[in-house]
Amino acid sequence: MRDNVDWRLDQWRVERPDIDPAPMGVVGRIQRASRILDRELHHNFGTHGLQLWEFDVLGTLRRAGPPFRLTTGALVEASMVTSGAITNRIDRLVARGLVTRETDSSNRRCVLVTLTDQGRELVDEILVDHVDREKELLTPLNPTEQEQLAGLLRKLLIGLGDGASDRT
User: Fold this and answer.
1) Which of 56, 48, 70, 3 is nearest to 30 (CA)?
2) What sign has the CA pseudo-torsion 45, 38, 87, 59?
């Protein structure tokens, strides 16, 4: 079986036989898979009236456990966006009544973001559909292949400097 990337690699082999395009095959497939998965997840969240980034913030707060509260700094780290972007995202989620924002009384420079009951209910409602959709997207791979792929991607990410930070 051949995929779209094979076609591009064949072209490079013809045009530049002096270069081995194999790395382009790996990176190209990761990029294409990422785009396809993002498109499918955006569609799935859209059916629930959410954007992917909104679920990311709400899910991060939900995973934090009771009281479902994190600092903006922790949200920046978890979402890998700038502090300006997270501020904009929080503003939009506050306007929808899905989170609250307050200054930490013990550290006035620190802002705490808390998942509201409405936000928690929404995340809990969507989570089952989200996991089911991801399971469906991975059906071309059997469970053993999924584990192998997860392990290889973990190894790649760690090698690229994306190891887990110390989290409590």
Assistant:
1) 3
2) positive
For 150, the token pair is 């997860």
Only one residue has tokens 């002096």, namely: 18
Map out the domains of the chain as residue ranges.
1-47, 52-120
pLDDT at 75 exceeding the cut of 80: yes
Which residue from 127, 131, 135, 104 is spatially nearest to 58, judged by alpha carbons? 127
Neighbouring-strand partners of residue 104: 107
Which residue has tokens 């994306």?
Answer: 162
CATH top-level class of 52-120: mainly alpha
Contact criterion met (CB below 8 Å) for 45 and 126: yes
Structure confidence by residue, pLDDT tens digits, 107-161: 888 899 999 999 999 999 999 999 999 999 999 999 999 999 999 999 999 999 9
What radius of gyration, in Å, describes the C-alpha atoms of the chain?
A: 20
Q: Which two tokens stand for residue 42?
A: 């955006």
pTM: 0.81
Parallel, antiparallel, or unpaired for β 107-115 and 99-104?
antiparallel
Sheet bearing 107-115, strands edge to edge: 69-71, 107-115, 99-104
Distances from the Cα of 115 to the Cαs of 47, 91, 94, 159, in angstroms? 21, 13, 9, 34
